[in-house]
Amino acid sequence: MLFCSPAKPGSCADITHAWRLGLVKLLAEGPAMEILADAGYQGPSARTGGRVITPPHRTCKKNAFDWYEGMHEQQRKALSSRRIRVEHGIAHLKNWRALARHLGRREHMSDIVQAVAGLLSHQQGEDPIPARQI
Prior knowledge:
Layout: H1 14-21, H2 23-29, E1 35-36, H3 42-47, E2 52-53, H4 66-95, H5 97-100, H6 109-125
Parallel strand pairs: 1-2
């Protein structure tokens, strides 16, 4: 987990939060790394020097050639197979009861998300099979 934005009142797209919090600028100026994102992040992809990798944009939607459709589908599936780990990481966060059934005050939600992300990161970093002691 690289970034968890603070909880804000009301509904808003996560890309809007990324722009407002300066995440896109941080990615453009920060260390060189690939961020695998979904199609909603195609705008930041162009402004981060290729650091945010998104599914390819379809340039021709109507009456497209068969070779174009095949190429587009192949590129989309290649990114999707790499991005599945990101989706699983998000799913692991949502499985924690503190996030799945949060009934408390909204002001505490940001702290809970940070705590769960830290615990999950620590849990995933541990050795899954401890060494046997003889």
